[in-house]
Amino acid sequence: MATRRTRQEIRPSLVSPPVAGVASLLIPGLGQILARQLQRGLLLLGSLVTSIGLFAWRVSLLASREVGLAAKFNKALRWSPLFVLPVLVSLVALWLWIAWDAYQQAQPGRRGGGIGVFVLVLVLFFALGWQISEINLYKLVTELSDASGPLSRVVWPWAAAVTRDVETTGAGAEILSPCDDLPPPSPPEEVSGEPYLVAEPTCGDLSQQVEEGGELKTIPGTTLSIVGRGYEPNTETELWWVDPIGNAFRMRSEGQYIVFTTDEEGSFELEVDMPYRLIPPSSEGRQVHRIEARQITTVGGLKPSSALLHNIEKMMETIVLGMMATLFGIVFSIPVSFLAARNLMSGSPFTMAIYYVTRSILNVIRSIEPLIWAILAITVVGLGPFAGVIALTVHSIAALGKLYSESIESIDPGPIEAIQATGANRLQTIMYAVVPQMIPPFVSFSIYRWDINVRMSTVIGLVGGGGIGFLLTQYIRLLDYRSAGICVWFIAITVATLDYVSSDIRQRFV
Predict the structure, then answer these.
(1) Are 235 and 281 contained in the same domain?
(2) Domain limits for position 213
(3) Where are the alpha helices (DSSP H) in 266-348?
(4) 493-504 residue pLDDT tens
(5) How many whole angstroms from its chain centre is CA 125?
(6) Over the stretch 281-303, which tens digit does the pLDDT of each residue have?
(7) Tell me: the pLDDT tens digits for 411-459?
(8) CATH code, domain with 233
(9) Percent of the chain with pLDDT over 90
(10) Is residue 84 part of a domain?
(11) What is the three-class DSSP state of 294?
């Protein structure tokens, strides 16, 4: 074998070195092929063609509105010269280097080497990948500080894990907008011992948003003088606005919520502008709004928040989802694994055909991620954990079927031959010679798959397949980063715990 390989390595080139170099200069890789380096030539040709294709695609994206190759290239060069020029020079250098490599490979006794050309290919692909992936380290560093607030709430979210009952006290006054010919609302009557709020005037205009010079500007509404008394002293108070159809929202000033503290007698005075508010056409009659000053105080002891309870509920759903998918996957993959084991199915052309068909189906199913299977399952059974169970079960059957079959193919043939020598049929051979050898790896792979399914079930929930992932998506969309942080912590704790438990079980059986 060694002599044969040596003869192949020293086989002379079909052409002289200069001809090989010129050939690769005209068609990259052709010189290597003529120098009896077929694989090397095809690899270099494919690398250069792929690099040129990626470069052209990226240039067209940078100048998508331009017509013509020259116009696209010029615009891309103006927009991103640090990408276009180095990559263009690298492509030319790679082309010339391939020609030089062909010249070297065609020399007598010269084979292999030329690692520099492959290093250049890797650098070129790295540069293209950096640009296509839109990696921006400057943006990462500069905007990381802006994201420190949400990230800190995710890292330590436990302030949202407990809560207290709240009690809201306050008073309000009616405001007419706009003023009309009828008398405006009268100031409310003051009741001794209860909070009191009065606003002057009791009618006015809301803020308006108008477009000037292509920009949206806000014209402030009527300024209201707010006077309150009878509130809890030295307590934070919030200002709220209630529109005619009952929608309440906190008032802002210069983008910040209006929050103030009452004095030692529980009184306050301030001026605010009437806010901007869209009123639906269905709201007929006089537009009477209401301004309220509210004090919110906590009462009673700590108790689990709704976010914590929802996370516990969905985490349990996630664990059960992964467990059910693993159970179904084991049940259906065991018989499939016997059909996908070559050493058991090599008895006849018919069984080998079954082997190849089974293997092909498993490869196709396994190549599709569980996330895609979840989307397909949702179209059949709708949103919920059942879709997640179906998705993970389908993928588990393919994955475990492959692992189980490879375990069967690697078993010791000695016990099989001994059982067959006694005249046992195929079923008896499997039961007494194959199954005992399969149990340890089967247990190990099954536990490992359960671990994978629990972790995957958190991702399945992102597309509506049930579990804690669905809850995590909702919290992120609502910008509730503390509740989202509780989800992340629950996922990490659960996966770490299951990893410890599965490791302990694996040591007992394997």
Answers:
(1) yes
(2) 163-303
(3) 306-339, 342-345
(4) 988 888 888 777
(5) 25
(6) 555 667 889 999 999 988 888 89
(7) 888 888 888 888 888 788 878 887 788 888 888 888 888 888 888 888 8
(8) 2.60.40
(9) 26
(10) yes
(11) strand
The rounded distance, in Å, linking the Cα atoms of 85 and 185 is 72
197: which 2 tokens?
């709020």
Ordered DSSP codes for 431-465: IIIIHHHHHHHHHHHHHHHHHHHHHHHHHHGGGT-
Looking at this protein, which amino acid is placed at residue 155? V
- Cβ burial, residue 270 (10 Å; 0-12/13-18/19+): middle
User: For the whole model, what pTM was predicted?
Assistant: 0.66
Residue length of the chain: 510
Residue 3 has pLDDT above 50, yes or no: no
The amino acid occupying position 81 is P
The single-letter DSSP state of residue 203 is: B
Tell me the three state secondary structure of residue 314.
helix
User: What is the CB neighbour count within 10 angstroms for residue 79?
Assistant: 12
Specify whether 386 is located in the same domain as 497: yes
The gap from C-alpha 178 to its chain's centroid, in whole angstroms, comes to 49
Number of domains making up the chain: 3
Closest CA to 198 of 299, 295, 293: 293
Instruction: Please report whether residue 344 resides in a domain.
Output: yes
Answer whether residue 327 shows pLDDT above 90: yes
Local structure of 300: helix, strand or coil: strand
